[in-house]
Amino acid sequence: MTVRCPLTDCHTKNAADADTCVRCGTPLRHLARLSAYPDHLFNRGLAAATAGDLGTARDLFAAVVHWCPLDVVARNALALASFQLDDHAAARVNWEAVLDRSPGDPLATEGLARLADH
Ligand SMILES: [Zn+2]
Predict the structure, then answer these.
(1) Is residue 72 within 8 Å of residue 100, measured between CB atoms?
(2) pLDDT confidence of 18, banded at 50, 70, 90?
(3) Which domain of life is it from (predicted)?
């Protein structure tokens, strides 16, 4: 994994654990932590869901989707947590967003079918 320097006239690839850009010296440590943050939130969301804390899981998955709106895995997880919390409107919006991004996605297709049964 590498971190790209954020300066537009640099964009040098650096090691993920680099403190500063090897070319221009821009601080990178904060940036690396930022890009790992959605994964961290997603894992916490999965842990909360496994522990049965669906409200927390839903909030964490929603945060991941906020950071990474095109992440269909996180959006499927958000939709499922919403469904399990009986928030069918949110479940539908997110499963439909998954299908927009990834037509035929089996989790979203099944989820919307389950919503139609309710
Ligand atoms: Zn740089």
Answers:
(1) no
(2) confident
(3) Bacteria
CA of 8 to the centre of ligand 1 (A): 8
Q: Give the range of the structural domain holding residue 64, as residue numbers without chain letter.
A: 2-117
Q: How far, in Å, from the CA of 7 to the mean position of ligand 1?
A: 6
| Ramachandran angles phi, psi of 97, nearest 5° | -65, -35
What tokens appear for 13 in the block?
């690839």
To 5 degrees, how large is the angle CA 84–CA 37–CA 20? Answer: 175
- Residue 32: predicted pLDDT: 64
| Locus of tokens 């929603």 | 62
Tell me the CA–centroid distance for residue 69 and ligand 1, in Å: 27
The total of structural domains in the chain comes to 1
